[in-house]
Every structure is written in C-alpha cells, then in structure tokens.
Amino acid sequence: MEMEIVSEKVNPVLKRREIVVKIKASGATPSRKDVVAGVASHFGVDDKLILVDQILTEFGTSGSRARVKIYDDPKFIPKQRLEIVKARSKSAAEDQNAKA
C-alpha cells in the first residue's frame, strides 16, 4: 500500500493534525486498520493516537482517499468520537468472523 499526503493541517486548539492521504492499493478498499498502520509508520506515531474519519474509494481507479486525525495526546481525543471508532472497528471484526 502506497500513501501520498494530499494535505496536512495543524489544529493547535484541538491538539491534532488533520491529514488527507491518497492511498494506492491493489484490490479492495483498504480497511481502517490498514490505514492506521500506514499512517502510524509514515508519521512515526502510536496507532492509538490516530482516528480515521473517512475512507473514500475514487471512482474508476484503484486508489482511495482517507481523512485522518492524529492527536498529540490520547486525553484530547473526544470520548464520543472514540466510542464511534471502536464500534466501527468492532463491527468490522465481527463481520470478518462471521464470514470465516
């Protein structure tokens, strides 16, 4: 999976960086887990500080765009947002277990 940074904005008030990444991957749209792992390795941050807002597949290409937020400290991650992300990750894991 190749990643290219499209835009990066520092938001000092909310203590985070807001990033848009273009992802070139063969096959299906990358999972949130794959995007988090790629962003964590690219920026050298802990994966617990990264929240993936959205992954959009570009029509007619094998690429996707993801909106990602990297927080400076885990205490700045909004609790409601963290619960939503956990629920999405949990439901994706349950779907994979159901298919197996």
Task: Tag the structure with descriptive keywords.
100 residues, alpha+beta, Alpha-Beta Plaits, 4-stranded antiparallel sheet, globular
Architecture overview:
- With 100 residues, the chain is of the alpha+beta class.
- The protein has one domain (2-99): Alpha-Beta Plaits.
- The chain is 33% helix and 36% strand.
- The chain is built from two helices and four strands, in the order E-E-H-E-E-H.
- The protein has helices spanning 32-43, 79-99; strands at 2-11, 16-24, 50-57, 63-71.
- Strand 3 and strand 4 form a beta hairpin.
- The longest helix has 21 residues, at 79-99.
- It is globular, with a radius of gyration of 14 Å.
- The chain starts with a strand and ends with a helix.
- The mean pLDDT is 83.
Arithmetic mean pLDDT: 83
Poorly predicted regions are none
Fraction of residues in H or I helices: 25-40%
The total domain count is 1
What is the CATH class name?
A: Alpha Beta
User: Looking at this structure, what is the CATH superfamily?
Assistant: RRM (RNA recognition motif) domain
Q: Mind summarizing the main beta sheet? A: 4 strands, antiparallel
Q: Which secondary structure elements does this structure contain, and how are they paired or packed?
A:
Blueprint: E1 2-11, E2 16-24, H1 32-43, E3 50-57, E4 63-71, H2 79-99
Antiparallel strand pairs: 1-2, 2-4, 3-4
